[in-house]
Amino acid sequence: MTRQPKITFIGAGSTVFMKNIIGDVLQRPALSGAKIALMDINPQRLEESEVVVSKLISTLSAKATIELHSNQRKALEGADFVVVAFQIGGYEPCTVTDFEVPKKYGLRQTIADTLGVGGIMRGLRTVPHLWSICEDMMQVCPEAILLQYVNPMAINTWAIAEKYPKIKQVGLCHSVQGTAMELAHDLDIPYEEIRYRSAGINHMAFFLKFEHRQPDGSYRDLYPDLVRGYREGRAPKPTWNPRCPNKVRYEMLTRLGYFVTESSEHFAEYTPYFIKEGREDLIEKFGIPLDEYPKRCIEQVAKWKGQAAAYRSADKIEVAQSKEYASSIMNSVWTGEPSVIYGNLRNNGCITSLPDNCAAEVPCLVDENGIQPTYIGALPPQLTALIRTNINVQELTVAAMMTENCEHLYHAAMMDPHTSAELDLDQIWSLTDDLLAAHGTWIPEWARVSKKVQAA
Questions:
Q1: 171, 199, 286, 306: which sits with the fewest CB atoms below 10 Å from its CB?
Q2: DSSP label of 260
Q3: Using alpha carbons only, what angle is made at residue 207 by residues 201 and 210, rounded to the nearest 5 degrees?
Q4: pLDDT in the model for residue 79
């Protein structure tokens, strides 16, 4: 009997995301008999996820089996693929802290999970746990591939590569393919007729080519159409979230000549141009959704209560193919059938204008040899310059954790484009003090400070 793969899902209590990944996996014949190990520290969410996976298996008539674990190392034993999706500290208290403490200094954010003071703190909470997974993997499944879906993606990927270079890992996001679909929608062109090439870092990669296949087989550059549509008010078209009109990225397209692959709500806080104290005209003009991530968290928690009950009572669960890369990677590695994905890995010269040790997001070939990144060369200089401002923050945050030098956390905040555009040095130091104090035991002991958070 042919051996079936073992897929371990760490953070299986992220049930909706887990449902998408496992649903994709079970629709692939070579993976439909997989052993699926679900691990989470929350017994209720773990049980809810078991219900969902069981009904997915039934719906698809798959032969997969399920294991439930509260012990991480036990869940990882013999794994071929390890999917991680968790949020250390949750919405409450840690995400709330990441937003509310900076507000006392007049520093406003939108998502705060990738860069800025919120992203730095999230990385500080998250990386140690990712390292613990890597340590367990080295002991019980050293050849497994780590499929990392946790933010801050670039900081996480960089930190894993620095401390556990032997771990086969890739950071995964849906921003590249998701943005390509959005732009196809704005242009009224079927996504299947679009050809693109993207490169950069996670949440700040750019489409170096964005083209439409013509009837004669040639390709037409779509950038002039995108710029014209924006200037004439035909783009961007409304998307799923009315709070986010997506104007920031189009404005930056007119300045840089290239379109970035992460949302306007994210991009507004990766740069110093759009969120400014006393400039409500900018907020209104570009439709910047301040405090967007907390709003989504509250909405998702409320929605999940009804969704969990519906899944529990349903005989079958509707399954659609998601736009995530995980199942494609697993299928290609397991069967040798090649595929192309966009992944985050150590740069190693793929993008020659960025540091070799940074986490680059580039197209990758996947087959039985694993995940093989594509050589890109140098990016246009204006893109390189902007990306480097974000890499500075990532590099210093990783350096802080690798050396357990708390000073580098202050340096990272100091170098952040949005933070440094709004606050002076004393404010940045005081804010960092307050954030570290407020996080308490959620962060490593070496980073904790005794200073108490000042009352608002």
A1: 306
A2: B
A3: 160
A4: 98
